[in-house]
Amino acid sequence: MEAFYHPDSEDPDLFHSTELTRGPWSPDAQHAGPPSALLGHVIERCAPRPGFRVGRLAVEILGPVPIAPLRARARVVRPGKSVELLEATLSTERGPVLKANAWRLRVADPEVEVPAQVVATGSYPGPDAASESAKFPSTQPVGFHTGIDYRFVAGSFDELGPAVCWIRLRYPIVAGTTPSPLERTLAAADSGNGVSTVLDWNRYLFINTDLTVTLHREPVGEWVCLDAVTYPERSGIGMAESRLYDEKGPVGRSTQTLLIGPR
């Protein structure tokens, strides 16, 4: 079965990376979307509590993630009746490569009465109405770009500037499992700086050092939409910000801090 990672048959914390995780900056390093989603995968399975879900997850990218076996571990560091904090690490044999903190919150039951006029609304044309012609700017035959579907509503990889893009996983994050809404969102959200780049891919690097995703609602369906904008500065520090949607409307936001420089 094709997937971004295959669980080890003997060690439950070990995951074997496949070429589908390959990113755009190096043929030997992963795109940050799959390992971020893998952290989401283990966080959701850490001491799960009925009626709770992750409202925010922040990933710190400590260095390039090799296409190699990864050890993923999560633990509750601050338990609580209504809110709890979890942390997770992703490591190679040389040490940690990603760290994440996640706030898991109790879902209200019964639901809170919120005035209709303050509920987030809005939508974009769905993925069925979007262009299927997007070609990811990579010379690699296999990578993250071949493991997902991109469909642009506005902009494209050939147009510099803000963009609106639907993204769907073609394969599970972990073989033998169905990607959760959180996994799908994390995998997609890390493409915000790519779909909305304002710099020439051939001349510049714009690598994110982190990914923070906040979800006020759990996305429904396979597709996640990014309304993405990149803000570069001459200092070499930038930011990408994405408003996140599913086919029913807004679900949250994501941000990435960017390291910008010449290739």
Describe this structure in words.
- The protein has 3 helices and 13 strands; from the N terminus they run ββαββββββααβββββ.
- The longest helix has 12 residues, at 33-44.
- Strands 1, 2, 3, 4, 5, 6, 7, 8, 9, 10, 11, 12 and 13 form a 13-stranded antiparallel sheet that branches.
- A hairpin with a 2-residue loop joins strand 5 and strand 6.
- The protein is 10% helix and 43% strand.
Strand content: 35-45%
Helix content: under 10%
Secondary-structure element series? EEHEEEEEEHHEEEEE
Question: Biggest sheet, open or closed, and with what strands and sense?
Answer: 13 strands, antiparallel
Give a nutshell description of this structure:
The protein is mainly β.
